[in-house]
Amino acid sequence: MSRGRRAQRGAALITALLLAALAAVMVAGMMWREWGAIQREQAARQSEQARWLLRGALDWARLILNEAAQHSQVVALDQPWAVPLAESDLTRFLAAGQQGALGQAWLAGRIEDAQSRFNLADLAVFGKPVPAAVQALRQLCSAVGVDPELAQTVADAIAETTTPGSRQLPIRQLQDLARVSPQVAAALPRLAAVATVLPQPTPVNVNTASPQVLAAVLGIGADQAARLVAQRSHHHFENLQQVTQALQTATPAPIDPSLVGVSSNYFDAVARIRIDHFEYAERALIQRIGALSQVVRMQRVAPWLADAAARG
Prior knowledge:
By secondary structure, the protein is α+β, with helices and mostly antiparallel strands. The chain has three domains: 40-115 and 264-306, 2-Layer Sandwich (Pantoate--beta-alanine Ligase, Chain: A,domain 2); 118-192, no CATH class; 203-262. The chain has helices at 3-71, 99-102, 131-143, 150-162, 182-191, 211-218, 222-234, 240-247, and strands spanning 85-89, 105-113, 118-119, 124-125, 128-129, 195-196, 204-205, 260-261, 266-275, 278-289, 292-301. The chain has a five-stranded antiparallel β-sheet, with helices on one face. A hairpin with a 2-residue loop joins strand 10 and strand 11 (292-301). Helix 3 packs across helix 4 (150-162), helix 3 packs antiparallel against helix 6 and helix 6 packs across helix 7. The longest helix has 69 residues, at 3-71. Residues 95-99 and 308-312 have low confidence and may be disordered.
């Protein structure tokens, strides 16, 4: 065989190998795109299933709150709404023929009293800071390791947005305060456990608030706040007169009902759904008016925030 023919056969072999490699790459790319499309379709289907299931969980939370309101307007941690739902297998509640359609689905969640935290909307009314509320936030900042001077900064920002005719963007959630200043933004992770922003000024519920929040809004020491929490664990407070008596001071200062109460109108419902390896969680702010409730806002959150053990 001549050298020219061998060269031609070698070139043909290389070309064939290149074509085979190209075809393999194209087939692999098509299979990868197909696999990606299947995964996206599956994720979209699971996301839609999760949202529908969480809507059902939200309806359940509203039902629990409405039922509690029919028995008492006082809100306390010894009531059924405060019992978290541990992760439960939803397929146990389905008919035998429907279990395969959903797959392995687990639901967990809890209801929190939004008024167990200090409401930053209390800081200003019609563009004017409220001195008592600003002082309460100062004490609360000190308790959680935040510069107390930021209390006035936050109050001024809230005042600007509540001034009649103001063009400032409203502060609807705690994270909206990040735009006020870098110092306030850095303080938000510490404030998140003890403060919130609700659509209107609300008192702190003495039956559900933490000792830190109680000490701030009542202007008392940490020991007195701890005693209040211990006392309510045996029997919750029915009115502010009982709170005054529990403080056990010779000349108790009058409690400001705009800052402290024994009931609540706002609740956070947090739920997480897990379908196979897919997780989805949402937080809803529920407003209860009398024996009825409505959803004020909803947002997707990180799944770990819906863990029943992640209270606070």
